[in-house]
Amino acid sequence: MDLRAEFRRWKAQRLSKADLSRKGSVDEDVVDLVRLLNAREQFFTTSSCAGRILLLDGGINGFEVQKQNCCWLLVTHKPCVKEDVMAALKKASGDAVLKFEPLVLHVQCRQLQDAQLLHAVAVDSGFRNSGITVGKKGKTILAVRSTHGLEVPLSHKGKLMVTEEYIDFLLNTANQKLEENKKRIERFYSCLQHALARETMTESHPKIREKDSPACSKKARNTAKAQDTHVPEESEKEIENDGDDDLGISVTLFPEDY
């Protein structure tokens, strides 16, 4: 079967399915990005989470919470206050852990070069833990991720192990990370618009070639900054300083039955 036709079939099947997430809908902060991707014929999203603050009660294995075997005491995609966490902690009977999880977005791409374009945009926008997986049956998936998460145990067997002052400090940190995450999403959206516009122009005019290889040029970044969609100055410098790193694509193979 023609790969393009097969991709269209996969996309139609995925987008027609009901949202089976806990929330049952796309998170507000990532709606525009998801719509932009799904409107393009070469992409469709398979899962997304805009970023959230969680309080989980369950067993801990090497400080890693197994979310399928624990109780969700609190979950929010907005800034969180100490009073909400303290109230939720009263329900904890095991080992409660406070977490911040940044954006996670999975996008199936029609071909590898489409995934490479999206990967470059994601990395340039601050999501430097992103990677591409190629399946044996031709499925190419880009996972957009970053590493600025947070995971801190607060109680053991229902007993609070830290002070309220420390919880307040943790929440300030988590809320700052949530705000940083939102700005990176906005930057990703802005850079993706520029990259797709350039791609369309290049396809319409084959003789046109971009002088700047990065998916989001400094001009685009300055435009985003003018719209207050930039990441904090410290993070922006960190991203630019990392430009010499090897941003090679991580490729693995799915099982035969994927």
Describe this structure in words.
GO terms for molecular function: tRNA methyltransferase activity. Pfam families: TYW3. Residues 13-193 form the tRNA wybutosine-synthesizing protein domain. Belongs to the TYW3 family. This is tRNA wybutosine-synthesizing protein 3 homolog. This protein has helices at 3-16, 31-38, 82-89, 112-124, 164-204, 218-226, 233-241; strands spanning 43-49, 52-58, 60-61, 64-65, 71-76, 95-101, 104-109, 131-134, 140-144, 150-153, 155-156, 159-160. It is elongated and about 65 Å long. It has 258 residues and is α+β, with helices and mostly antiparallel strands. Strand 8 and strand 9 form a beta hairpin. Helix 4 crosses helix 5 (164-204). Helices cover 40% and strands 21% of the residues. It has a domain at 24-201: SSo0622-like fold (2-Layer Sandwich). The strands form four sheets. Strands 1-7-9-8 form a four-stranded antiparallel β-sheet, sandwiched between helices. It contains seven helices and twelve strands. The longest helix is centred in the last third of the chain and has 41 residues, at 164-204.
